[in-house]
Structures are given as C-alpha cells and as structure tokens.
Write the structure tokens for this entry.
Amino acid sequence: FFSGRKPPTAIMSTTTKEQPARSPSPFQIHVADEVLKDLQERLARARFSPGKHTPETPWKQGTDRDTLVELVAYWRTQYDWRAHERTLNAFPHFKMTVDGLNMHFIHKQSSNPNAKPLLMVHGWPGSVFEFYKVIEDLAHDFHLVIPSLPGYGWSEAPKDEGTSATECARILNALMLQLGYKQYVAQGGDWGGIILRALGVNHNENCKAMHSNFPICMAPTGLSPLAITRKIRFFGTLALAPLVLSKQEAKAVKDLQLFLKEGAAYQAIQGTRPQTLSGGLCDSPVGLLCWILEKFYAWSDSSVEDPFSSISRDEILTDVMIYWVTNSIESSVRLYYESLALTAGKPLALTPGYVAIPTAVAIFPKELIRVPRPVAKLSYNIKQWSEFQQGGHFAALEQPAALVEDVTRFFTKTLDLSTVLAAPAHAPNTAAPMDRVDWMLLVPFVAFIVYMIMRWF
C-alpha cells in the first residue's frame, strides 16, 4: 500500500513493520494491483440472498437487496478506485509514531499567516475521505490535521485492549502536540464528536474550542443539591419533551427513542462481539458493503426512491474501499467494544462532566441524535447553535458548503480566537453556570431538605 515499498500480495492490515518516527514522514496511498484483482474476483463470485421474501417497505429490515445487487455490479464494472486514490493523494498525507502507534493523518497547512490549527475527527463508518470536499475551503483559514483514528484506515491498530474514545482523545492530543500545535481547535461528528467531548474535558489546556455536529450529552454528575436538581432537569426535559420542548425538539427526542429501539442493534454487536462480526466482513467485500451501506442510507438525508441522493455511489464505495484495502473493519468496530460498557469489565468511556470550552453545535435534520438545546446547554458551553434544513449524519459529505460556513463563522467571527487560545485551562469538574431554571428548581429543593431536617429534629 505504501509508496517506496514492495506491493503486497494480499490484503494487509494497518499493522506494519515500518520504522517508528516521531516526526512526520510523507506518505502516499497506493493499493497494489493484485489487491484490486482479488477484489474483482470476489465481487464476480458474489452470492446474494434468494430474495424470496421482499419487505413491503424497502430498507425496513436492513439493506435493500435490489440496491445492494445494483451497487455491487456498479462496483465491479464502473467504479474506479485509482481515480479516487488520486483524489485522496491530492492532499498531503503523513505517518508518525504517536504513543507507540503508527498514525496516519492529512496535514494541510494554510498559506494564511493568521491561520489557526484545526483538528478534524471522523467516526464510524467514516474515514478521512469524509472531509475531502471541505479541505480546500477550510484551508483558507486553518492549518488542518485530519487523522485516521487508531485502527482505522492507514493508522495502526492498537495491539492491546484499552483504546477507548477517551484514550483516542489522548492520542490525538499527543499528535497535535508532536506537530507543534500547543493550542488548537477541533471539529467532529460521530465518534469524532465523542472524542471532542473528551478533549474538551480532559485536554482543554490544548484543545481550546470545538465545533460538533454530534454533541453527545451526559447527565450531570455529583450529589450536591445543584447536581441533583440538574439531573432532574436533564432527565425531566427528555421525559416530558412534548410538554416542555418545541414541536421540533420533541420530535428529535421521539426520533432518538425510535433509533434506540430499531436502529442501535449494530452497537450491541460491535460492542460485544466485534471479532464474530468481522470474521465474515474481512473475507467478503459484499458483506462489508452490505453492513456499511445500510448505515449510509439510514443516517443520511436520502430517500427510498433515491438512496444515493445525499451521498453518491462512488463516495460510499470509496469509504468501503478504505476499510477493505486496509483490512481494518475489525480494529475499527472494536472502538465500540472499548467504549460503550456493553461487556463486563469495560467502563463507559463517553467522558462525563461539563465541557467548559466554547462550543458550536450544528444540527442536521437526519442526524441520529439531535439533542434539544435546553439539554445540551447542561453539557456544553454553547456559543453558537445552528440548525439546518438538509443533511444528516455525514455532514462533511452531505452539506460541505454549509459545514464550512458554520465552522469558519464560529472560529473566525463568533469567537475572538486569539483570546480563546490564550485562555487558561478549565478543571475537569467545572460546572455549567447557574441560570434562572436552576434557581427555580434549587430553591424549593433546598427548602424541602431544610424542612425535612427540621421535622426530624
């Protein structure tokens, strides 16, 4: 896969014997011809389900069979990996050893003398390819660092257990420091949004502001009167959504409940038995496509009539190709196993606490989790809130212009970035500032406690 090396004779994992380097080494993507030939042969031998049972509603039971058959034929006869390989190689790629892992990343430096460093973090089933439409435009104002997460794409997979989302945040922070960026800002969605949360809580001496299109909110922690009233506020808002939220916000809560009921089974599988799942996906390109295609359809602003209206066939296939040619599906889905506490002995790695650094939230209508602002403000120091009319989970692919505008506006106009970068670090136990609702809940709660104590004595 790597320029300057003998082409592999089979599909290889991201784990290689390259010499460790603590400084960036230029890297070029190149997949050997025999790997592509092997893929073609596997696609030609594809065996599909008989199709004797057709659901009344396409996609209701998962990946639509007819769409899969059509896309596999397109993959085999029309899709051109070399063209997309050239698209990827148009950006400056590097590899560097960070905390013992051989990490891959794009490092696009700006010619703007006032540019600030921006870390961009993808998720699953995404990759660095997610950002190919926004790199050039964002490079007008930012030095971009876009890493493949550990175990994703061309980044080495961790050999031992323990690389959770919290640990990924530590590794990416170390990557930025090794590149000389002592203070930076960050953007991300999916696991990227979750990792940004960990950066904002645990590494805010370096990560000074964040823009998230996937702001995961955690219930306030602690047993103080304020913490207890905020827990009531957090869960009460979600439980009473139709009564206390707008129609649009209440619908977002209802959609989340439906997703947890019907769409989250993949999390249970990937979070408990990643090796069982990956045994088949590593061997079958059609199986891999089937597993990932359903997520691109269900999580994007597409339709039954046109499953590729929001993300094209070529874009989906290029993303799947990155998992296939690097043989990284197992190491990628292991992030669920390490982070979601679905297996005994694995703690939840979603980083509780209040994110005190300035935060922008971008809400796209087909996003999986659209957090109502009254709930999000309990978890994040929100300085900019944007809601869009189109787009879904893969914002950089689906609505690149809107994302670029929102990110640029936040970091260059909403914030005085020079002041933000110079701001002192926040302690991990920093709490959200009290507001009117806190006082409305806290005063009667404390009064009740005092009353009960006086009655007791």
Q: What stands out?
A: The CA atoms of residues 278 and 330 lie 5 Å apart.
